[in-house]
Design a protein that fits this description.
alpha/beta, 12 strands, eight-stranded mixed beta sheet, two-stranded antiparallel sheet, 41% helix
């Protein structure tokens, strides 16, 4: 059995035609028929029922096809693993960091034309784990993390904004105080999913006689902005670049809400000019 025979076999399965499979593989129809016949002899089973009008896969073909695709995929992975390539950096983040990250990546690539820099989307915990495991070289997070083997480098400070539906009683104002907002339900994801936002809220309300009136937690498969549309009496906290149609943004009087954005890297990572350039670009982006 040869890998090229498996490639021809997959082509016939997908085309259900020896002539179309031959065209796809850039060989003659007689050659692909010969190789499939050899594969059938090697395996000791027929793979196709042939007629002048159709090619019908057998039960053996149904069992073989996923394994053949897996073998061909492994061949591609082996070739990719040993293929000479330039240095590579993997940056883990989420989409809220995309604009700033892509700008920094563009700058780093300009300084290091041979570098390959990947922008990988991962949830918070997976970002941290990817760096710890060595799957990614750095991760962008809001806040900080205290984990052995990881180093946190502060990049910039990000402003948070107060958001309501445009139908909210406070929506016509330019600003609001925490006391104003305290009369309305605050919608946030569960604290387990957004510890940082909950800590920011607690710190903001610490000097007031009462805390915020929490509404029901935002479910994991819902967005804060959609919840505001459904609950025009509520408010929430968004990142500054999260503005959406139908949502009013209020400035918080006297108590700016800010959080640090940091890069997480392994403490034992080897010095890399590309990584150094990328971190510098993230500081400045």
């Amino acid at each position: 059995m040869e890998l090229r025979q498996l490639a021809y076999f997959v082509a016939v399965c997908e085309e259900l035609s020896f002539s179309r499979a031959a065209t796809r593989c850039f060989i003659s129809q007689s050659a692909i028929s010969h190789q499939i016949a050899r594969l059938e002899r090697d395996l000791g089973v027929p793979l196709f029922e042939r007629s002048t009008r159709s090619v019908v896969p057998t039960d053996a073909t149904t069992r073989l096809l996923p394994l053949a695709k897996q073998m061909l995929s492994l061949e591609s992975a082996i070739r990719a693993a040993v293929r000479a390539s330039g240095p590579r950096i993997r940056l883990a983040a989420n989409m809220s960091f995309a604009t700033r990250s892509l700008s920094a990546i563009a700058g780093a690539r300009e300084a290091h034309p041979g570098a390959e820099i990947e922008f990988v989307i991962k949830p918070f915990r997976q970002r941290i784990q990817a760096v710890a495991d060595g799957d990614c070289d750095l991760a962008l997070i809001r806040g900080s993390v205290d984990q052995p083997g990881l180093t946190v480098e502060k990049l910039w400070v990000e402003d948070l904004v107060i958001a309501t539906s445009t139908a909210h009683p406070l929506a016509g104002r330019d600003d609001a105080t925490l006391a104003d907002l305290g009369a309305y339900p605050l919608l946030l994801p569960p604290e387990l999913d957004q510890v940082l936002l909950h800590n920011v809220v607690r710190a903001a309300f610490a000097d007031l006689p009462t805390g915020p009136a929490y509404g029901p937690p935002i479910p994991p498969d819902h967005t804060a902005t959609m919840e505001l549309i459904n609950r025009p009496d509520a408010w929430t906290i968004l990142y500054a670049d999260s503005q959406t149609e139908g949502i009013a943004i209020l400035r918080l009087t006297g108590h700016p809400l800010r959080i640090p954005v940091s890069a997480v890297i392994r403490s034992d990572i080897r010095p890399s000019p590309i990584l150094t350039t990328l971190l510098a670009a993230l500081h400045c982006a």
